[in-house]
Amino acid sequence: MLQLRNISKSYPNGRNVLSNLSHDIKDGEYVAIMGESGVGKSTLLNLVAGLDSLDAGEIVVDGVPMSSLNDDEATLLRRKKFGFIFQAFHVLPHLTLFQNIALPLMLNHSETHRARLMLAAVGLRGREQDFPRQLSGGELQRVAIARALVHKPKLLLADEPTGNLDPDTAHEVLRLLRDEIKQNGASGILVTHSPAAAATADRILMLTKQGLLPMESVPA
Q: Which CATH number fits domain 28-48+78-217: 3.40.50.12280, 3.40.50.300, 3.40.50.10190, 3.90.1150.10?
């Protein structure tokens, strides 16, 4: 589903954050990425999502090199096949919760009834007409999670999706993420500092200066 081919990225200050990194994530595979703060985990997600540009290398999604697409084609691919959960939520304040969650369905010209189901799945049943200003940070995070899953994306990108949630809600959300990924035959990348969250994935990788390494091969 996802191929990273010798990708590199430097910050504006010149510090090299990712260097010649290569890795494949298979169809249907759910991978957790851990690593020290500042090592480039969120940067990697932003590059895969197309929210930042590579300095070198290639990202291939479902057999399609991202560099081969023009802006409109890349937008269409992300709209149909990607789901995003980012730390900043990006919930639209002028839309109701139902409208926020249904937005990917509307953009893809699909029926919106699944938005109500996803709202219930994240514990916000009956709040369809509420606005984001009426929610806590944890509730906003749950809306962002429901929106990322509602259109059954083929590739889910989740950056610390449980960072604003209490332990019980985090457990339920992690179960939902895994269930949706597996039921829909999707692939997923979970960036997290939480060993408990990482343990829900099929395998755990550590992002290091040497690249993405299996957890068991990283020196203690």
A: 3.40.50.300
